[in-house]
Amino acid sequence: MKFLKRSAVLLDFLFLAGLFWIVRYWHCLHFGLYEDDLTIIPDAFTRTFSSLISFLFTYITHLSGHARPLSNSFIYFFSWTGWRLAGLWGPYLIGYLITVINLGLFFWLMRRVASRPFALLAGLGYILYSADTTQAFLTHSLGLQPSITLILLALHCYLSNKRALAYVLVFAVLFSYELPFFLFAAAPLFKKTWNRAMWKELLWHCVILAAMAGGIYAFRILIGEKRVGGIGLKELILTPPLHMLEGPLVNLGMFLYRPYQALRAANFETGLAILLAVAFFTWLISRLPVTTQVKAGDLWRALRDPAARARLPEEVKSLGRIAAVGLTMLVLAYPLTFTVRAYAISGRDTRVHAAGVAGAALLAASVALSLIYLTNGSIWRRLVNLLIALELALLVGYGFVIQRDYVLAWQYQRQFWTELLPLIQDADSKTYVLVTSDGLKDTQQIDANTWNLPNILGQLYDFPSSSVPRVFRLRSGWQDHLDKSASIFISGVTSYVAPDFYEKADFPNIILIDTRSGKMVRHTGTLDVDGIAYSIKKTSEPVLSALGHDLLYDLMIVRP
Question: pLDDT tens digit string along 514-536?
Fold first, then answer.
Protein backbone atom coordinates (compact mmCIF):
# COMPACT_ATOMS: atom_id res chain seq x y z
CA MET A 1 0.00 0.00 0.00
CA LYS A 2 2.81 2.41 0.91
CA PHE A 3 4.56 1.58 -2.39
CA LEU A 4 1.38 2.32 -4.36
CA LYS A 5 0.95 5.62 -2.52
CA ARG A 6 4.52 6.66 -3.29
CA SER A 7 4.10 5.61 -6.91
CA ALA A 8 0.98 7.78 -7.22
CA VAL A 9 2.84 10.77 -5.76
CA LEU A 10 5.73 10.22 -8.18
CA LEU A 11 3.39 9.93 -11.17
CA ASP A 12 1.58 13.11 -10.13
CA PHE A 13 4.88 14.96 -9.89
CA LEU A 14 6.14 13.69 -13.26
CA PHE A 15 2.87 14.79 -14.84
CA LEU A 16 3.23 18.29 -13.34
CA ALA A 17 6.90 18.50 -14.37
CA GLY A 18 6.03 17.52 -17.94
CA LEU A 19 3.19 20.02 -18.10
CA PHE A 20 5.47 22.76 -16.81
CA TRP A 21 7.94 22.01 -19.62
CA ILE A 22 5.15 22.31 -22.19
CA VAL A 23 3.76 25.54 -20.75
CA ARG A 24 7.05 27.43 -20.27
CA TYR A 25 9.83 25.62 -22.18
CA TRP A 26 8.28 23.97 -25.25
CA HIS A 27 10.05 26.47 -27.54
CA CYS A 28 13.16 26.99 -25.40
CA LEU A 29 15.51 25.91 -28.21
CA HIS A 30 14.58 29.22 -29.84
CA PHE A 31 15.03 31.36 -26.72
CA GLY A 32 18.03 33.67 -26.33
CA LEU A 33 19.49 36.23 -23.94
CA TYR A 34 17.47 39.22 -22.80
CA GLU A 35 17.90 42.38 -20.75
CA ASP A 36 19.82 41.50 -17.52
CA ASP A 37 21.01 38.24 -19.11
CA LEU A 38 23.24 40.27 -21.41
CA THR A 39 25.00 41.93 -18.48
CA ILE A 40 26.13 38.80 -16.65
CA ILE A 41 25.71 35.60 -18.64
CA PRO A 42 28.08 36.19 -21.62
CA ASP A 43 30.88 36.91 -19.14
CA ALA A 44 30.09 33.64 -17.35
CA PHE A 45 30.19 31.73 -20.64
CA THR A 46 33.72 32.89 -21.45
CA ARG A 47 35.41 32.14 -18.11
CA THR A 48 37.60 29.17 -17.36
CA PHE A 49 36.70 27.07 -14.34
CA SER A 50 39.53 28.48 -12.24
CA SER A 51 38.60 32.02 -13.26
CA LEU A 52 34.97 31.35 -12.36
CA ILE A 53 35.78 29.99 -8.89
CA SER A 54 38.18 32.85 -8.19
CA PHE A 55 35.60 35.39 -9.33
CA LEU A 56 32.82 33.84 -7.23
CA PHE A 57 35.02 33.70 -4.13
CA THR A 58 35.85 37.38 -4.47
CA TYR A 59 32.25 38.27 -5.34
CA ILE A 60 30.85 36.52 -2.28
CA THR A 61 33.49 37.57 0.25
CA HIS A 62 33.24 41.20 -0.86
CA LEU A 63 29.41 41.07 -0.58
CA SER A 64 28.99 42.32 -4.13
CA GLY A 65 25.62 42.53 -5.88
CA HIS A 66 23.95 44.92 -3.40
CA ALA A 67 25.29 42.86 -0.47
CA ARG A 68 23.31 39.83 -1.64
CA PRO A 69 26.04 38.03 -3.59
CA LEU A 70 24.47 34.57 -3.80
CA SER A 71 21.91 35.54 -6.46
CA ASN A 72 24.41 36.62 -9.11
CA SER A 73 26.78 33.85 -8.03
CA PHE A 74 24.09 31.30 -8.82
CA ILE A 75 23.60 32.93 -12.23
CA TYR A 76 27.32 32.80 -13.00
CA PHE A 77 27.77 29.21 -11.87
CA PHE A 78 24.68 27.73 -13.51
CA SER A 79 25.22 29.70 -16.73
CA TRP A 80 28.82 28.52 -16.95
CA THR A 81 27.78 24.91 -16.26
CA GLY A 82 24.89 24.96 -18.71
CA TRP A 83 26.95 26.51 -21.52
CA ARG A 84 29.51 23.75 -21.27
CA LEU A 85 26.86 21.05 -21.19
CA ALA A 86 24.73 22.14 -24.15
CA GLY A 87 25.54 25.65 -25.36
CA LEU A 88 22.83 28.27 -25.01
CA TRP A 89 20.21 25.58 -24.38
CA GLY A 90 22.12 24.34 -21.32
CA PRO A 91 21.30 27.25 -18.96
CA TYR A 92 17.64 26.92 -19.93
CA LEU A 93 17.71 23.24 -19.02
CA ILE A 94 19.25 24.04 -15.63
CA GLY A 95 16.74 26.86 -15.08
CA TYR A 96 13.93 24.41 -15.80
CA LEU A 97 15.37 21.85 -13.38
CA ILE A 98 15.69 24.43 -10.59
CA THR A 99 12.06 25.48 -11.03
CA VAL A 100 10.93 21.84 -11.21
CA ILE A 101 12.77 21.14 -7.95
CA ASN A 102 10.73 23.98 -6.45
CA LEU A 103 7.59 22.46 -7.92
CA GLY A 104 8.50 19.12 -6.35
CA LEU A 105 9.15 20.69 -2.96
CA PHE A 106 5.86 22.58 -3.12
CA PHE A 107 3.90 19.49 -4.20
CA TRP A 108 5.52 17.44 -1.43
CA LEU A 109 4.62 20.17 1.07
CA MET A 110 1.00 20.03 -0.08
CA ARG A 111 0.95 16.23 0.27
CA ARG A 112 2.19 16.65 3.85
CA VAL A 113 -0.56 19.06 4.87
CA ALA A 114 -3.50 18.27 2.57
CA SER A 115 -5.20 15.59 0.47
CA ARG A 116 -4.03 14.34 -2.90
CA PRO A 117 -6.80 16.17 -4.84
CA PHE A 118 -5.86 19.45 -3.17
CA ALA A 119 -2.14 18.86 -3.76
CA LEU A 120 -2.74 18.12 -7.43
CA LEU A 121 -4.90 21.22 -7.92
CA ALA A 122 -2.36 23.36 -6.06
CA GLY A 123 0.43 21.90 -8.20
CA LEU A 124 -1.51 22.89 -11.32
CA GLY A 125 -1.97 26.38 -9.88
CA TYR A 126 1.77 26.55 -9.22
CA ILE A 127 2.91 25.67 -12.74
CA LEU A 128 0.19 27.67 -14.52
CA TYR A 129 0.78 30.74 -12.35
CA SER A 130 1.04 33.67 -14.74
CA ALA A 131 1.04 36.86 -12.64
CA ASP A 132 4.82 36.36 -12.91
CA THR A 133 5.80 35.76 -16.53
CA THR A 134 9.57 35.44 -15.95
CA GLN A 135 9.92 31.76 -15.01
CA ALA A 136 12.00 31.03 -18.12
CA PHE A 137 13.99 34.30 -18.00
CA LEU A 138 17.51 33.05 -17.21
CA THR A 139 18.38 35.83 -14.77
CA HIS A 140 15.37 34.79 -12.69
CA SER A 141 15.31 31.03 -13.21
CA LEU A 142 19.01 30.84 -12.24
CA GLY A 143 19.15 33.71 -9.72
CA LEU A 144 15.70 34.18 -8.17
CA GLN A 145 14.30 30.64 -8.15
CA PRO A 146 17.09 29.32 -5.84
CA SER A 147 15.76 31.68 -3.15
CA ILE A 148 12.35 30.03 -3.46
CA THR A 149 14.14 26.67 -3.18
CA LEU A 150 15.65 27.78 0.14
CA ILE A 151 12.26 28.93 1.45
CA LEU A 152 10.53 25.67 0.51
CA LEU A 153 13.34 23.63 2.06
CA ALA A 154 13.08 25.74 5.21
CA LEU A 155 9.32 25.07 5.39
CA HIS A 156 9.94 21.33 5.18
CA CYS A 157 12.62 21.54 7.87
CA TYR A 158 10.30 23.53 10.11
CA LEU A 159 7.49 20.99 9.77
CA SER A 160 10.02 18.22 10.51
CA ASN A 161 11.05 20.01 13.74
CA LYS A 162 14.50 20.85 12.38
CA ARG A 163 14.06 24.48 13.39
CA ALA A 164 17.74 25.50 13.54
CA LEU A 165 18.40 24.30 9.99
CA ALA A 166 15.19 25.98 8.82
CA TYR A 167 16.31 29.36 10.17
CA VAL A 168 19.79 28.95 8.64
CA LEU A 169 18.23 28.29 5.23
CA VAL A 170 15.86 31.25 5.42
CA PHE A 171 18.66 33.53 6.65
CA ALA A 172 20.65 32.61 3.52
CA VAL A 173 17.78 34.03 1.43
CA LEU A 174 18.76 37.51 2.68
CA PHE A 175 22.11 37.07 0.93
CA SER A 176 20.43 35.86 -2.24
CA TYR A 177 17.24 37.26 -3.83
CA GLU A 178 15.42 38.32 -0.66
CA LEU A 179 11.96 38.77 -2.21
CA PRO A 180 10.38 35.54 -0.78
CA PHE A 181 11.94 35.88 2.70
CA PHE A 182 8.76 36.71 4.62
CA LEU A 183 6.88 33.73 3.16
CA PHE A 184 8.54 31.73 5.91
CA ALA A 185 6.52 33.67 8.48
CA ALA A 186 3.56 31.44 7.58
CA ALA A 187 5.38 28.22 8.56
CA PRO A 188 3.56 27.62 11.90
CA LEU A 189 0.20 28.02 10.16
CA PHE A 190 0.76 24.77 8.27
CA LYS A 191 0.10 22.87 11.48
CA LYS A 192 -3.24 21.10 11.43
CA THR A 193 -4.25 22.33 14.90
CA TRP A 194 -4.54 26.04 15.54
CA ASN A 195 -4.52 26.57 19.29
CA ARG A 196 -3.00 28.96 21.82
CA ALA A 197 0.37 27.21 21.67
CA MET A 198 0.47 27.64 17.88
CA TRP A 199 -0.30 31.36 18.11
CA LYS A 200 2.44 31.80 20.71
CA GLU A 201 4.83 29.92 18.47
CA LEU A 202 3.82 32.12 15.54
CA LEU A 203 4.54 35.26 17.55
CA TRP A 204 8.07 34.20 18.50
CA HIS A 205 8.67 32.94 14.97
CA CYS A 206 7.79 36.37 13.52
CA VAL A 207 10.02 38.08 16.11
CA ILE A 208 12.97 35.98 14.96
CA LEU A 209 12.33 36.78 11.29
CA ALA A 210 11.90 40.49 12.02
CA ALA A 211 15.20 40.45 13.91
CA MET A 212 16.91 38.78 10.95
CA ALA A 213 15.50 41.29 8.45
CA GLY A 214 16.25 44.27 10.71
CA GLY A 215 19.78 43.07 11.34
CA ILE A 216 20.51 42.68 7.62
CA TYR A 217 19.02 46.10 6.92
CA ALA A 218 21.24 47.70 9.57
CA PHE A 219 24.25 45.80 8.25
CA ARG A 220 23.67 47.01 4.69
CA ILE A 221 23.29 50.58 5.91
CA LEU A 222 26.53 50.20 7.89
CA ILE A 223 28.55 49.03 4.89
CA GLY A 224 27.09 51.78 2.70
CA GLU A 225 25.03 49.65 0.32
CA LYS A 226 23.56 52.22 -2.05
CA ARG A 227 20.24 50.56 -2.92
CA VAL A 228 19.24 50.21 0.75
CA GLY A 229 20.67 53.61 1.64
CA GLY A 230 18.62 55.17 -1.14
CA ILE A 231 15.31 54.12 0.46
CA GLY A 232 13.92 57.06 2.41
CA LEU A 233 12.12 56.67 5.73
CA LYS A 234 8.75 57.52 4.16
CA GLU A 235 9.20 54.91 1.44
CA LEU A 236 10.41 52.36 3.99
CA ILE A 237 7.25 52.82 6.06
CA LEU A 238 4.61 53.27 3.35
CA THR A 239 5.72 50.96 0.51
CA PRO A 240 5.35 47.54 2.22
CA PRO A 241 1.72 47.96 3.35
CA LEU A 242 0.77 49.57 0.03
CA HIS A 243 2.31 46.72 -1.97
CA MET A 244 0.81 44.14 0.41
CA LEU A 245 -2.57 45.56 -0.57
CA GLU A 246 -1.98 46.17 -4.29
CA GLY A 247 0.05 43.05 -5.07
CA PRO A 248 -2.46 40.36 -4.03
CA LEU A 249 -5.32 42.12 -5.82
CA VAL A 250 -3.36 42.34 -9.08
CA ASN A 251 -2.04 38.82 -8.58
CA LEU A 252 -5.46 37.22 -8.19
CA GLY A 253 -6.85 39.39 -10.98
CA MET A 254 -4.46 37.66 -13.38
CA PHE A 255 -6.50 34.46 -13.05
CA LEU A 256 -9.17 36.34 -14.99
CA TYR A 257 -7.06 38.60 -17.19
CA ARG A 258 -4.54 36.07 -18.49
CA PRO A 259 -7.26 33.81 -19.98
CA TYR A 260 -8.64 36.87 -21.78
CA GLN A 261 -5.17 37.68 -23.09
CA ALA A 262 -4.72 34.07 -24.22
CA LEU A 263 -7.90 34.21 -26.27
CA ARG A 264 -7.05 37.61 -27.69
CA ALA A 265 -3.55 36.54 -28.79
CA ALA A 266 -4.48 33.01 -29.85
CA ASN A 267 -3.08 31.52 -33.05
CA PHE A 268 -3.36 27.97 -34.34
CA GLU A 269 -0.83 26.55 -31.88
CA THR A 270 -2.33 28.33 -28.88
CA GLY A 271 -5.87 27.38 -29.88
CA LEU A 272 -4.91 23.73 -30.33
CA ALA A 273 -3.17 23.70 -26.95
CA ILE A 274 -6.27 25.17 -25.28
CA LEU A 275 -8.65 22.67 -26.88
CA LEU A 276 -6.50 19.67 -25.98
CA ALA A 277 -6.01 21.00 -22.45
CA VAL A 278 -9.75 21.52 -21.90
CA ALA A 279 -10.45 17.90 -22.83
CA PHE A 280 -7.62 16.55 -20.69
CA PHE A 281 -8.35 18.67 -17.59
CA THR A 282 -12.08 17.89 -17.75
CA TRP A 283 -11.22 14.18 -17.67
CA LEU A 284 -8.63 14.66 -14.91
CA ILE A 285 -10.87 16.70 -12.60
CA SER A 286 -13.81 14.34 -13.06
CA ARG A 287 -11.59 11.52 -11.80
CA LEU A 288 -10.38 13.26 -8.65
CA PRO A 289 -11.29 11.07 -5.64
CA VAL A 290 -13.44 13.70 -3.89
CA THR A 291 -16.51 12.46 -2.00
CA THR A 292 -17.07 15.31 0.46
CA GLN A 293 -20.31 17.25 0.04
CA VAL A 294 -21.37 20.51 1.64
CA LYS A 295 -24.25 22.90 1.07
CA ALA A 296 -23.86 26.64 0.57
CA GLY A 297 -26.32 27.25 3.41
CA ASP A 298 -24.14 25.23 5.79
CA LEU A 299 -21.13 27.36 4.90
CA TRP A 300 -23.10 30.57 5.39
CA ARG A 301 -24.30 29.45 8.83
CA ALA A 302 -20.79 28.35 9.76
CA LEU A 303 -19.52 31.87 9.22
CA ARG A 304 -21.78 33.14 12.01
CA ASP A 305 -22.33 30.16 14.29
CA PRO A 306 -19.40 28.27 15.95
CA ALA A 307 -21.67 25.27 16.52
CA ALA A 308 -22.51 25.10 12.81
CA ARG A 309 -18.83 25.52 12.03
CA ALA A 310 -17.98 22.56 14.24
CA ARG A 311 -20.48 20.36 12.35
CA LEU A 312 -18.77 20.92 9.00
CA PRO A 313 -16.85 17.95 7.54
CA GLU A 314 -13.22 17.92 8.61
CA GLU A 315 -12.11 18.23 4.97
CA VAL A 316 -14.04 21.51 4.67
CA LYS A 317 -12.61 22.95 7.89
CA SER A 318 -9.11 21.93 6.80
CA LEU A 319 -9.69 23.62 3.43
CA GLY A 320 -10.66 26.83 5.19
CA ARG A 321 -7.44 26.79 7.22
CA ILE A 322 -5.22 26.18 4.23
CA ALA A 323 -7.00 28.90 2.24
CA ALA A 324 -6.17 31.27 5.10
CA VAL A 325 -2.54 30.14 4.88
CA GLY A 326 -2.58 30.84 1.15
CA LEU A 327 -3.96 34.34 1.64
CA THR A 328 -1.34 35.01 4.32
CA MET A 329 1.49 33.82 2.07
CA LEU A 330 0.18 35.91 -0.81
CA VAL A 331 0.21 39.06 1.31
CA LEU A 332 3.68 38.19 2.68
CA ALA A 333 5.04 37.97 -0.87
CA TYR A 334 5.13 41.77 -1.20
CA PRO A 335 6.76 43.59 1.80
CA LEU A 336 10.21 43.61 0.15
CA THR A 337 9.15 44.75 -3.33
CA PHE A 338 10.67 48.25 -3.11
CA THR A 339 12.21 48.50 -6.58
CA VAL A 340 9.23 47.50 -8.75
CA ARG A 341 5.59 48.61 -8.81
CA ALA A 342 3.26 46.00 -7.34
CA TYR A 343 0.74 46.34 -10.17
CA ALA A 344 3.14 45.29 -12.95
CA ILE A 345 1.48 42.88 -15.42
CA SER A 346 4.01 42.64 -18.25
CA GLY A 347 7.72 42.19 -18.83
CA ARG A 348 10.46 41.39 -16.36
CA ASP A 349 8.83 43.74 -13.83
CA THR A 350 6.31 40.96 -13.17
CA ARG A 351 9.05 39.46 -11.00
CA VAL A 352 7.35 41.53 -8.30
CA HIS A 353 4.81 38.67 -8.19
CA ALA A 354 7.40 35.86 -8.16
CA ALA A 355 7.08 35.11 -4.44
CA GLY A 356 3.29 35.05 -4.72
CA VAL A 357 3.22 31.74 -6.55
CA ALA A 358 2.72 29.54 -3.47
CA GLY A 359 -0.02 31.65 -1.91
CA ALA A 360 -1.86 32.08 -5.21
CA ALA A 361 -1.68 28.33 -5.90
CA LEU A 362 -3.12 27.55 -2.45
CA LEU A 363 -5.98 29.99 -2.95
CA ALA A 364 -6.72 28.76 -6.48
CA ALA A 365 -6.83 25.15 -5.31
CA SER A 366 -9.03 26.12 -2.36
CA VAL A 367 -11.56 27.83 -4.62
CA ALA A 368 -11.60 24.92 -7.09
CA LEU A 369 -12.03 22.27 -4.39
CA SER A 370 -14.72 24.33 -2.64
CA LEU A 371 -16.74 24.41 -5.86
CA ILE A 372 -16.37 20.66 -6.16
CA TYR A 373 -17.50 20.15 -2.55
CA LEU A 374 -20.54 22.36 -3.15
CA THR A 375 -21.66 20.53 -6.30
CA ASN A 376 -20.74 16.95 -5.44
CA GLY A 377 -23.72 14.68 -5.94
CA SER A 378 -25.56 17.12 -8.22
CA ILE A 379 -25.80 17.79 -11.93
CA TRP A 380 -23.79 20.98 -11.39
CA ARG A 381 -20.59 19.00 -10.77
CA ARG A 382 -20.02 18.50 -14.50
CA LEU A 383 -20.35 22.22 -15.14
CA VAL A 384 -17.85 22.96 -12.35
CA ASN A 385 -15.44 20.40 -13.82
CA LEU A 386 -15.71 22.12 -17.19
CA LEU A 387 -15.25 25.62 -15.75
CA ILE A 388 -12.13 24.61 -13.78
CA ALA A 389 -10.77 22.79 -16.83
CA LEU A 390 -11.41 25.84 -19.05
CA GLU A 391 -9.58 28.14 -16.63
CA LEU A 392 -6.57 25.83 -16.49
CA ALA A 393 -6.58 25.33 -20.26
CA LEU A 394 -6.60 29.06 -20.95
CA LEU A 395 -3.63 29.47 -18.61
CA VAL A 396 -1.87 26.76 -20.62
CA GLY A 397 -2.64 28.81 -23.71
CA TYR A 398 -1.19 31.93 -22.11
CA GLY A 399 2.00 30.00 -21.44
CA PHE A 400 2.38 29.65 -25.20
CA VAL A 401 1.76 33.39 -25.61
CA ILE A 402 4.67 34.09 -23.24
CA GLN A 403 6.90 31.66 -25.10
CA ARG A 404 6.01 33.34 -28.40
CA ASP A 405 7.20 36.67 -27.01
CA TYR A 406 10.52 35.12 -25.94
CA VAL A 407 11.06 33.59 -29.38
CA LEU A 408 10.18 36.84 -31.18
CA ALA A 409 12.29 39.01 -28.88
CA TRP A 410 15.37 36.92 -29.64
CA GLN A 411 14.61 37.11 -33.37
CA TYR A 412 14.21 40.90 -33.14
CA GLN A 413 17.55 41.24 -31.38
CA ARG A 414 19.38 39.13 -33.93
CA GLN A 415 17.73 41.00 -36.78
CA PHE A 416 18.63 44.35 -35.16
CA TRP A 417 22.34 43.67 -34.90
CA THR A 418 22.58 41.84 -38.22
CA GLU A 419 21.16 44.90 -40.00
CA LEU A 420 22.97 47.49 -37.90
CA LEU A 421 26.57 46.30 -38.03
CA PRO A 422 27.15 46.87 -41.77
CA LEU A 423 25.97 50.48 -41.31
CA ILE A 424 28.32 51.37 -38.45
CA GLN A 425 31.59 49.71 -39.42
CA ASP A 426 33.42 53.04 -38.95
CA ALA A 427 32.29 53.47 -35.33
CA ASP A 428 35.23 54.16 -33.03
CA SER A 429 35.64 54.72 -29.30
CA LYS A 430 34.26 58.28 -29.54
CA THR A 431 31.16 57.34 -31.54
CA TYR A 432 27.57 57.28 -30.32
CA VAL A 433 25.13 55.26 -32.42
CA LEU A 434 21.57 56.54 -31.97
CA VAL A 435 18.74 54.40 -33.38
CA THR A 436 15.19 55.72 -33.73
CA SER A 437 12.34 53.55 -32.42
CA ASP A 438 9.80 54.14 -35.19
CA GLY A 439 10.29 50.91 -37.11
CA LEU A 440 11.51 48.62 -34.31
CA LYS A 441 9.30 45.79 -33.10
CA ASP A 442 8.66 44.96 -29.46
CA THR A 443 7.08 42.17 -27.43
CA GLN A 444 5.02 42.46 -24.27
CA GLN A 445 6.57 39.98 -21.87
CA ILE A 446 10.30 40.51 -22.49
CA ASP A 447 12.18 43.50 -23.88
CA ALA A 448 14.07 43.41 -27.16
CA ASN A 449 16.63 46.09 -28.03
CA THR A 450 15.94 48.52 -25.21
CA TRP A 451 17.92 49.59 -22.12
CA ASN A 452 20.76 47.07 -22.44
CA LEU A 453 21.81 48.02 -25.99
CA PRO A 454 24.88 49.99 -24.80
CA ASN A 455 26.35 46.78 -23.34
CA ILE A 456 26.15 44.65 -26.45
CA LEU A 457 28.54 46.06 -29.06
CA GLY A 458 31.45 45.48 -26.66
CA GLN A 459 30.46 41.81 -26.51
CA LEU A 460 30.15 41.40 -30.27
CA TYR A 461 33.72 42.52 -31.00
CA ASP A 462 36.97 42.17 -29.12
CA PHE A 463 37.87 45.82 -28.55
CA PRO A 464 41.49 46.54 -27.57
CA SER A 465 40.45 48.82 -24.67
CA SER A 466 37.49 49.62 -22.46
CA SER A 467 36.57 52.53 -24.75
CA VAL A 468 33.74 51.07 -26.80
CA PRO A 469 31.25 52.86 -29.08
CA ARG A 470 27.78 52.75 -27.57
CA VAL A 471 24.44 52.06 -29.23
CA PHE A 472 21.30 53.72 -27.83
CA ARG A 473 17.65 53.37 -28.77
CA LEU A 474 15.97 56.78 -28.88
CA ARG A 475 12.59 57.52 -27.38
CA SER A 476 9.82 59.33 -29.22
CA GLY A 477 10.35 63.10 -29.04
CA TRP A 478 14.11 62.89 -28.56
CA GLN A 479 14.59 65.80 -30.98
CA ASP A 480 12.99 68.12 -28.41
CA HIS A 481 15.97 67.64 -26.12
CA LEU A 482 18.82 68.54 -28.47
CA ASP A 483 21.19 71.08 -26.96
CA LYS A 484 21.92 74.15 -29.09
CA SER A 485 25.58 73.63 -28.27
CA ALA A 486 25.47 70.64 -30.65
CA SER A 487 24.93 67.81 -28.18
CA ILE A 488 22.26 65.59 -26.69
CA PHE A 489 22.17 64.24 -23.15
CA ILE A 490 21.63 60.48 -23.15
CA SER A 491 19.17 59.78 -20.33
CA GLY A 492 15.85 58.10 -19.63
CA VAL A 493 14.13 61.10 -21.19
CA THR A 494 15.80 60.77 -24.57
CA SER A 495 16.51 57.05 -24.81
CA TYR A 496 16.01 53.58 -23.33
CA VAL A 497 19.03 53.44 -21.05
CA ALA A 498 20.11 52.51 -17.54
CA PRO A 499 21.45 55.34 -15.32
CA ASP A 500 24.99 53.91 -15.56
CA PHE A 501 25.09 55.09 -19.18
CA TYR A 502 23.73 58.61 -18.75
CA GLU A 503 26.14 60.92 -20.58
CA LYS A 504 26.42 63.76 -23.07
CA ALA A 505 26.88 62.85 -26.73
CA ASP A 506 28.41 65.51 -28.96
CA PHE A 507 27.82 66.09 -32.65
CA PRO A 508 29.45 65.24 -35.05
CA ASN A 509 30.50 62.03 -33.21
CA ILE A 510 26.97 60.68 -33.67
CA ILE A 511 25.77 58.08 -36.18
CA LEU A 512 22.01 58.39 -36.59
CA ILE A 513 20.07 55.32 -37.78
CA ASP A 514 16.55 55.94 -39.07
CA THR A 515 14.09 53.02 -38.83
CA ARG A 516 10.87 54.68 -40.02
CA SER A 517 10.73 52.63 -43.20
CA GLY A 518 10.93 49.37 -41.26
CA LYS A 519 14.55 49.01 -42.33
CA MET A 520 17.67 50.61 -40.94
CA VAL A 521 18.98 53.58 -42.93
CA ARG A 522 22.01 55.59 -41.93
CA HIS A 523 21.27 59.32 -41.89
CA THR A 524 23.54 61.35 -44.15
CA GLY A 525 24.12 65.07 -44.38
CA THR A 526 23.00 67.25 -41.49
CA LEU A 527 20.20 66.83 -38.97
CA ASP A 528 17.91 69.84 -39.20
CA VAL A 529 15.78 70.53 -36.11
CA ASP A 530 14.02 73.86 -35.39
CA GLY A 531 16.20 75.70 -37.88
CA ILE A 532 19.45 74.37 -36.44
CA ALA A 533 21.68 72.12 -38.54
CA TYR A 534 23.51 69.44 -36.51
CA SER A 535 26.49 67.77 -38.16
CA ILE A 536 26.30 63.98 -38.33
CA LYS A 537 29.34 61.70 -38.50
CA LYS A 538 30.29 61.02 -42.11
CA THR A 539 31.17 57.55 -43.28
CA SER A 540 34.89 56.86 -42.89
CA GLU A 541 37.36 53.98 -42.92
CA PRO A 542 35.99 50.79 -41.30
CA VAL A 543 37.09 50.01 -37.76
CA LEU A 544 34.93 47.10 -36.61
CA SER A 545 35.86 44.75 -39.46
CA ALA A 546 39.47 44.79 -38.25
CA LEU A 547 38.49 43.50 -34.80
CA GLY A 548 38.09 39.92 -33.70
CA HIS A 549 34.65 38.58 -32.90
CA ASP A 550 33.57 38.08 -29.31
CA LEU A 551 31.17 35.42 -27.98
CA LEU A 552 27.91 37.22 -28.72
CA TYR A 553 28.76 37.66 -32.41
CA ASP A 554 28.08 34.03 -33.24
CA LEU A 555 24.88 34.06 -31.18
CA MET A 556 23.50 37.35 -32.45
CA ILE A 557 24.48 37.67 -36.08
CA VAL A 558 22.39 35.87 -38.66
CA ARG A 559 24.61 34.29 -41.32
CA PRO A 560 23.59 34.81 -44.95
Answer: 999 999 999 988 999 988 999 99
